[in-house]
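Changelog excerpt

This revision adds worked examples to the README so contributors can see how folded entries look when concatenated. The first example is reproduced verbatim below.
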Amino acid sequence: MPTPSPSLFARFAALHVPGDPVVLFNVWDAGSAKAVGAAGAKALATGSHPVADANGWPDGETVPIAFVLANAARIMAAVDLPLSVDFEGAYSTDPARGAENVAILAATGVVGCNFEDQVIGGEGVHPLALQGQRIAAIRRAVGDAFFINARTDIFLKVKPEAHDAALADEAIERARVFADSGASGFFIPRLGDLKLVERVVRATSLPVNAIAYPGGPTRAQWAGAGIARISHGPFPHRALMATLEERAREAIG
């Protein structure tokens, strides 16, 4: 598949405006991508969790990498929109191998990926220096235009009541290293305390990505806190499956 034109990369990056966030209503296959595109989406993003759920795997790099790559190619063939892929930890903790995997992903025509810092299949997050090395290796492998949305999982690793200024400052330090290493954006899933969100947004040069979740801030509230990108993660797929089950019960019953 041909490499996206420079304008497609620029078009995607330009959507990340603090205070006027792009909404990425996460998709999992070509069919869901076409539906979300028909709804007026300006760009698309897969979520690793819904891709796994829709195809019978648990989340956490259990979906074979060949399937992830083929799925991305199918979505790219089905829609004429920029696509970012949730690539979890790039299927390797080794910086060079992970970078090689992201380069293969980029060759499918996608404009970017999510890249997380949690230890998949283990505990906690990767040491900051190592994560910086991993991001830097990816940047060298994919060039300047590819959008590396660097995700920190530190807010997912503790209960929301443990989200405090100290943890936000830890995230800020991660954002600094990620930016210095070549990241394009900074993803802070599950942080919903808007004062802490604002603290992070003010302290980083990167556009910040939040995840919408049931009971969380509204789109307007995220925008007011300076968020530049709102993801929806596994929740669209879960809502659709709940509706499907309900309709099936009505039909069967």
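The second example, added in the same revision:
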Amino acid sequence: MAPSLSIRRATAADAPAVAGVHVRSWQRGYRGLLPDAELRAMRPADRVGDYTFDDDRGPHTWVAETSGGIAGFVTICELDGHAAVMALYVDPDHWRTGIGSALMDRAESEIARQGYPVARLHVLKGNERAMDFYAGRGWAPTGRVRSGDVWGVHVDEVEYEKIG
């Protein structure tokens, strides 16, 4: 695990750093899965206003903070009567340091604390690294795929589920 790592609830002041992690993660992690021109055009400043960290009704976001700043985040919410992991992103410079696992530990702990028997998440189709990560944590594909536009880019996402 990364040295001096802390996990805490995100605040409005974290939005620029979270947007930076979000965009850098997409640009590196989705290379070859989404159009290069779309990935290159993404700017953190365009995303800052999309986050609602100070709304206690949800969604709820936690950030992973190291001595160098925010290195990742996870967002959960209730969706159609079950818990949903809406986002899990780690800055590419911190991949494979345990930050993603620490963030998912926090998300799964919160989901259990809230009493949800089922949790779901979606993974970009073809994102084998993420699929392997979730499978290793007991998440399984449901066989459902959703299609839509995210940040102006058409995506197909595979649904994963974890029970209990």
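Reviewer comment on example two: The first helix runs from residue 15 to 29. The mean pLDDT is 93.
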